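Translate structure to sequence.
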């Protein structure tokens, strides 16, 4: 069994927002991936985006400065 690690998980209300966020991250060399929402969270579209904790201090500013849409940002063991 894989050991759980704490990650940043961003939730979205619409799948289009997750896809747009993923494209933005890939274009800007932000390492992350689309995942199903962890069972401990809920969100509108059923998908979320996982990032390393190294983005903890910068992700809200990145989202705001680039007009990206999201529902919530959490630190979760996944």
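Result:
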């Amino acid at each position: 069994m894989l050991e759980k690690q704490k990650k940043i998980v961003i939730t979205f209300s619409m799948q289009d927002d997750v896809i747009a966020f993923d494209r933005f991250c890939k274009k800007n060399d932000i390492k992350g991936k689309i995942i199903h929402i962890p069972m401990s969270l809920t969100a509108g579209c059923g998908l979320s985006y996982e990032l390393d904790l190294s983005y903890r201090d910068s992700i809200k500013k990145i989202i705001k400065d680039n007009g990206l849409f999201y529902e919530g940002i959490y630190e979760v063991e996944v």
